[in-house]
Amino acid sequence: MSQLIIADTPAKAAGEQINTLIQEHLGDVVCILSGGSALDIVEYIRPGKKCFHANCKEETCDMSECRTIFMMGDERVSREPAINNFLQLRSRYPEHPILNHLIETVPEEHESAKTFALRIEENFFSILTELNNPKIMYVLGVGTDGHTAGIFPLASDAFRKTYQDDLTYVPVSLEGLTIDSRASFTPNWILNNVDELIGYVVGADKQEMLTKLNLEDKKLNERPAELLKLHPRTTVYTDIDMEQHSFAEEYKT
Fold first, then answer.
1. What is the CATH number of the domain that holds 81?
2. How many domains is the chain built from?
3. Which terminal Cβ of the chain has fewer Cβ within 10 Å, N or C?
4. The whole model's pTM is what?
């Protein structure tokens, strides 16, 4: 991992980094979000860029190279407001300007996880292909079992079958999960297409996992959070004061 940033308010620090990346990039931006505790970051995100178009009178705009698109990176295939990540975000931040830039990821009535994943992937790519020089950022939370987004630890064969390298956004149906019908971007797509990974690992219950992630290597199927180490541009935000680490750099704010 490139950087470990320890902060009293890691959500604010992560949100401010996202804002800086949005403003500094010469082109459109896609920011893929995560549910759970990582939704705390949304409070500090300010979508839109300071406009440079000569004929635009607004401080921010949605014209080419000023567009900012947001999407949930993993989704729970449910129409229940307390379960679906998109609906949770909308309920928690009903007045947030991010909602005007957010791709909807709510399944249709009686829609299967497979059909849902295909529809969302098609919609995502139709929007992505219209953008000018897009920069893709991805927020990843980490579970106590080492899962990240909708990518879960599995035996090698099952992992390859579920998260096929030639696919982008896939249905994830696994026994034993509280919410067993999900959809997620695949690890291979993340590693090959995302420009900036932003890890968000907070809370005392995550200390053991963050320590293990720092001090030992595992295969991706055994601990999907290894994505944070495999990606060349990763910043991890935490409120856990690590005594030992293997990050390239550590900052305290």
1. 3.40.50.1360
2. 1
3. C
4. 0.90
